[in-house]
């Protein structure tokens, strides 16, 4: 039997599981009971058992809790969330889980909220240095709004992950520009195809079909992009060898 008790807070820069269940729940903004419940349902992987049989959790658990929270925000039932997570590869990295969360958040209309500095840290899942906040603002992930910050929930976690990527801000901004240009071109082409396909239908049918197609198209684009990126990187690495 796993004993989970309060322990010293560990830093997670190394990615090693260093959080007790109490600390994980606090960072994720849920209760310990909720964490245990998700574990029994198979929505969270089991903790790593450390000294004194204490269960330790890491960044993957935080990322999965954030994804579950986003799925709930979209109105999914627990059964639907189980099915969704069951279709994902079991070995998704923290960054890939963050991308999945961003995809899910994109299903809903734009939901920019104005939050305080303290709430910004909570949404980010960690305390942010002032310099990191400035980088998020420069990347257009966060916008200053009076004394608060305008935050798009679907972008914030992804932006926070980018803070740890060993690339210059200029490179990240250039990559963002390239992604926006090409994604808009793809969206325009797909939109024209869908408009032609439903040209004879009434407005209500068109809206219903659009709502159903949105998450499917976004997931298809993500999958196609991931495969293309892997192929490009593989070719580049082969050339380097």
SSE inventory with pairings:
Blueprint: H1 21-28, H2 32-40, E1 48-49, E2 55-56, H3 59-73, H4 78-86, H5 94-105, E3 112-115, H6 117-124, H7 130-138, E4 142-145, E5 148-152, H8 153-163, H9 169-197, H10 203-240
Antiparallel strand pairs: 1-2, 3-5, 4-5
Structure notes:
The chain is mainly α. The protein is 61% helix and 7% strand. The strands form 2 sheets. The chain has a 3-stranded antiparallel beta sheet with strand order 3-5-4. A two-stranded antiparallel ribbon has the order 1-2. The longest helix is centred in the C-terminal third of the chain and has 38 residues. The relative contact order is 0.07. The N terminus is likely disordered.
Task: Characterize this entry briefly.
The protein is mostly helical and 241 residues long.
Beta-strand level of the residues, as a percent range? 5-15%
The gross shape turns out to be globular
Number of strands: 5
| Largest sheet: spatial strand order | 3-5-4
Secondary-structure-based class equals mainly alpha
Distance between the termini: 49 Å
Please, how many helices? 10
Largest pleated sheet: 3 strands, antiparallel
| Helix content estimate | 55-70%
The radius of gyration is 20 Å
What number is the mean pLDDT? 80
Poorly predicted parts: 1-14
Helix and strand sequence: HHEEHHHEHHEEHHH
